[in-house]
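Appendix B, example 12.
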Amino acid sequence: MRVRSLRIVISSTRKFINMGALSRLWNLVKNFHAADISSLMSHLISREKLTLFNLIFEKDKEKTGEVLSELEPEDAAAILKELQLEQITELIQRIPPDDAAPILDLLPEDLKNSILSAMEDKPSEDVKGLLHYEEETAGRIMSTNFYALDQDTNVSDAITAMQLEGDVESAFYLYVVDDQNHLVGVVSLRQVLFTRPNTPLKNIMTKDVISVHPETDQEVVARHVADYNLVAIPVVDAEQKLVGMVTVDDVIDVIEEEATEDIYKMVSLDTTDRIQSSPFKSIKKRIPFLMFSLFTASVAPWVVHYFEGTIREFVTLAVFLPLVMALGGVAGNQTIAIIVREIAIGQAEWVGARKALLKEILVGIGNGLIIGIILAGFSFLLIKNPYLGIILGLAIIINLFVAALVGTLIPLILKLLRLDPALGSVNLLTMCTDTIGSLTFLGLGTLFLTKLT
């Protein structure tokens, strides 16, 4: 849905809800795709979300299940809490287990258990099986609905078996197993359609199968799917028995989720903070990070205060000091963004960090020389003092070198300590560049004070 159209739809939805014109609201949204309805609901407040969701449930229960699958788990759980147990159970049974598990995990324990008890045996067991695994793992996002046949089955019988089985979620591959359910190969549905009917699956299957374990981190799963151009990847247990598969649509969700998480963490934001959140909730989520930022940012003022006498003697230093600190921060943030991305896609590790470190240091020195010379010339034209230009140029070169060094090392050290490289990197970098920048610039100013005044 285009931005302009979405604004009109949001405005019309709120208007119809406030007027109580629910029949007009249904006419507006009934032909929308579930993903578009989910996008619309993300812009509504809680009361409006619940009204729209109840309306869709009353008119089209199948579409309600599709919408529930498209919603963020936090939004879906908040809506389900307001419904009756019978309604929740019916909806949860309409969506795939891998979509139901993260939603149920956000509900109160007693309500979750009541829902699982009220569900039919098969869906309930499937969801319980996924809830057994840790969050953000392959086991939590995998689907247990897939095609798997014995390796001695011929192509004709395989097609018949798939037709009898019916549709499964994202049917891309036919997985081939032995008599003990060990995964031994994979066959694409295209191969099945274009192979002679009496050919056994073991004769056409690919034996070198890319697979993951239920405990594999979802980021690693996404990386495998991207690296090997897969549309689904099988999940096997420690004995190589097939237990599920992760499809490309779930991988796309993971990539979006992880990218959002990294962006939020790099600016010290809680990943659950949204524009629809109440001011009180946002304050509660943001204040701890701001307090940490206050602590890291308080070092530089102490350094500046130490050189108070120098600044008093030559006030112009205070004019150029913010430039030195700001340029160091910007350069460092550029380095951090690159290193965090490389870590996220598995390209940057502590063991092989020497090349990345050397490259970023050279970039920092190169940028420092260019910017330093430009600012040195500018300050000379403005102040007519060559020593100020030399001091400013040297300070810029040193601070951009430090920015590149620290911007590379901080994410790598955090990863080495098994901490999220994105979390806190920017705050620590700012502390270093502001402190080193002010110390270098004012230190050089103190050294050449007699030449400046």
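Residues 43 and 86 are 27 Å apart (CA to CA). Strands lie at 147-150, 173-177, 183-188, 232-236, 242-247.
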